[in-house]
Design a protein that fits this description.
The protein is of the alpha/beta class. It contains 22 helices and 24 strands. Strand 23 and strand 24 form a beta hairpin. Helix 6 packs antiparallel against helix 7, helix 15 runs parallel beside helix 18 and helix 16 packs antiparallel against helix 18.
């Protein structure tokens, strides 16, 4: 095949610090759906996923677990119920799986690091600043939000060490020009965010090696250093194609790629990665698409939220295809979505049990009942009654392709279900149960059923990227031999005397109340098991060093009432709080709580705790005078609320 007919698509490589959740599954299923769509269109597809296995966080977790870092990641990646098992369960059709501990990748990274060093883009220096271990990221004081990591909201710590730096600042202008093309990074809201928040304020050179831990790829010409995470991780997209190694030899054939990533790592893929490629003189990726988060209870999904959002549990209860469909049907790709079990069950009942499953069952049952499973060739069309359904079914593939090419799977599925809805209406309009009573109308009845079978064939074929097993089963039931794109653009492909087959309900309806109660019981049992495993009487370990009481009393902690709260334009982290601090003059504080309160209006009228005697500073171009106190557990972060009867301005002591 020519290079023009190739399509290379990647997920991020996931960090195996713990087992993956439904948010990771969302990204991987989406990428799989795009890969399957391109294969359906006849493209030579390369689909890559994998794991990012080095770094300080892995080293520390392995030490806590009493195993080597390699053993730790091997268990999460290859162990029972691990990442490879999850992707097998979810029917992910990746062509390759890369681990950054793979020998060929290690060799490539050493050569890539040397390439950029020889190009004069990597130099040795000394790093001192704030470091977030979970994100493996360094930050300046000005980049912190409420003194915490601007990406995850966790505490940071001061770090100082010798390091190599990549001249990221050198590439600020060409990267900005790349972003401004409007094609490289999507959705466009991400472009504005990258330029406004990172490039225009001035790109700083990037720390690309570490000496304070050893779990990483050694810099071969300076063994005291290990290659820092983003050079190691981002380069997987080319090392997996054989760049600077002998494992594969199809870099020139497949590169450049389409990268599907979560919005929290858009910065690395749309600024750092292009700059690295520019340094090496390599072509830019075709596209970086930054999708939104799945939220639970108003906060970003995390590995510590519990198993009601566990893909293993959901797939076991509802079926893999139902879960895949729900993820692609429900949430606008590119925006955040609020995950709930109610939403999942409603989607299965409304779309899969009613609109799709019921249509397939009714149609094949009528062919079986009225014509013993095989339609007669004598059929009578009625242009007035048939035209709209046939036109919608015939034009469906074009509308669908437009949405899939724009990376909008929810809209592509929406187009399919418009046709399915019309087909269900078509049954009621033509009333086959009445036509069968009149011998002179059997030919008309046969044509009605043929139109339905053909419509189902086209719709089910276009569902292949999302529900591969179900689509194949439906095709079998309506007598279709295989599924190919050309046939999906035409109406009338099946022979007039097609034979159909009945079967069990594809998606039985779920009793909402009973199912939610069952899920609640499962969740409670799992939480109890987790609590027992962690040990309720485990020794308390402070996260910060002890301080003197006098130091504590230097903080002016007051109760404040939230008068107004709104998102800060151009930021997906900050909320702007207007507060009554008891002084009679409203106080403004900016806080990185937006990911945890997607609807900030719910906070208005609440009373919280603030530190008021901190120096004022600018955040996103706006003044912030103080800091709000919050409580953190894993990835769950909430403001510390105060009872209503405590007045604004009351001192916390």
């Amino acid at each position: 095949m020519s290079k023009e007919n190739t399509f290379y698509i990647t997920t991020p490589i996931y960090y195996p610090s713990d087992k993956l959740h439904i948010g990771h599954t969302y990204c991987t299923v989406a990428t799989d759906s795009f890969a399957r769509y391109k294969r359906l269109r006849g493209y030579d597809v390369m689909f890559l996923t994998g794991t990012d296995e080095h770094g300080q966080k892995i080293e520390e977790k392995a030490k806590e677990a009493g195993v080597t870092p390699q053993q730790f990641v091997d268990n999460i990646v290859e162990g029972e119920g691990g990442i490879l098992d999850l992707w097998k369960l979810m029917n992910i059709s990746n062509d390759r799986f890369i681990r950054t501990t793979d020998d060929y990748h290690v060799k490539s990274i050493q050569r890539i690091f040397r390439r950029m060093y020889d190009a004069g883009d990597i130099y040795k220096g000394k790093y001192s600043g704030m470091y977030c271990t979970p994100c493996e990221s360094f930050w300046t004081e000005s980049q912190l939000v409420d003194g915490k990591c601007p990406d995850c909201g966790r505490p940071v710590k001061y770090a100082e060490e010798e390091a190599y730096f990549f001249k990221l600042s050198k590439y600020a202008q060409p990267v900005k020009e790349l972003l401004l093309t409007g094609e490289f990074l999507q959705p466009m809201s991400r472009v504005n965010e990258m330029i406004k928040n990172f490039i225009d304020p001035g790109l700083e050179d990037l720390c690309v090696s570490r000496t304070s831990f050893s779990w990483g790829i050694p810099v071969d010409f300076d063994p005291g250093h290990v290659v820092y995470v983003w050079v190691d991780a981002l380069s997987n997209y080319i090392t997996a194609l054989g760049f600077d190694n002998d494992k594969y030899d199809d870099f020139d054939h497949y590169w450049p790629a389409v990268h599907i990533v979560g919005k929290e790592i858009v910065r690395f893929h749309s600024i750092i990665w292009p700059a690295m490629l520019m340094s090496m003189g390599l072509p830019m990726p075709k596209k970086v698409y930054g999708h939104g988060w799945l939220l639970i209870d108003g906060g970003k999904m995390s590995k510590s939220k519990g198993n009601v959002a566990d893909p293993y549990l959901l797939a076991e209860r509802y079926g893999v295809d139902a879960l895949r469909f729900f993820l692609m049907r429900t949430f606008p790709f590119g925006s955040d979505g609020n995950f709930s079990n109610e939403l999942l069950i409603s989607c299965i009942n409304a779309d899969l049990a009613n609109d799709l499953g019921n249509l397939v069952s009714r149609t094949t049952a009528m062919v079986n009942k009225y014509f013993r499973g095989t339609l007669p060739t004598e059929q009578e069309a009625d242009e007035e009654k048939d035209a709209e359904l046939i036109q919608m079914a015939t034009s469906l593939s074009e509308k669908y392709a437009k949405e899939m090419d724009a990376f909008q799977p929810q809209n592509a599925i929406g187009e399919i279900f418009k046709v399915l809805s019309r087909a269900n209406k078509y049954i009621d309009e033509n009333a086959p149960w009445l036509l069968i009573k009149d011998e002179t109308k059997k030919a008309r009845l046969a044509r009605v059923l043929y139109n339905l079978v053909e419509t189902i064939r086209i719709c089910s074929g276009l569902l292949v990227p999302f529900m591969p097993e179900t689509a194949a089963e439906i095709a079998k039931r309506v007598g279709a031999e295989g599924i190919n794109w050309e046939d999906l653009t035409k109406f009338g492909v099946l022979p007039a005397d097609v034979t159909t087959h009945t079967g069990d309900a594809l998606f039985p309806r779920i009793d909402m109340d009973k199912e939610l109660a069952a899920l609640e019981e499962i969740s409670a049992a799992q939480k109890a098991e987790k609590a027992a495993a962690s040990g309720a009487n485990a020794d308390f370990k402070p996260v910060l060093p002890n301080v003197k009481v006098d130091d504590f009393y230097k903080n002016d902690l007051r109760v404040v009432e939230i008068l107004a709260c709104e998102k800060v334009e151009g930021s997906d982290k900050l909320l702007k709080f207007t507060l009554n601090d008891g002084s009679g003059t409203p106080r403004q504080i900016l806080s990185g709580m937006q990911p945890f309160y997607p609807d900030p209006s719910v906070l208005v009228g609440k009373k919280v705790v603030a530190i008021l005697n901190l120096p004022g500073r600018k955040m996103a171009g706006q003044a912030s005078n103080g800091m709000l106190l919050s409580a953190e557990s894993g990835d769950l972060v909430k403001l510390c609320l105060v009872p209503d009867e405590i007045p604004a301005g009351a001192v916390i002591s």
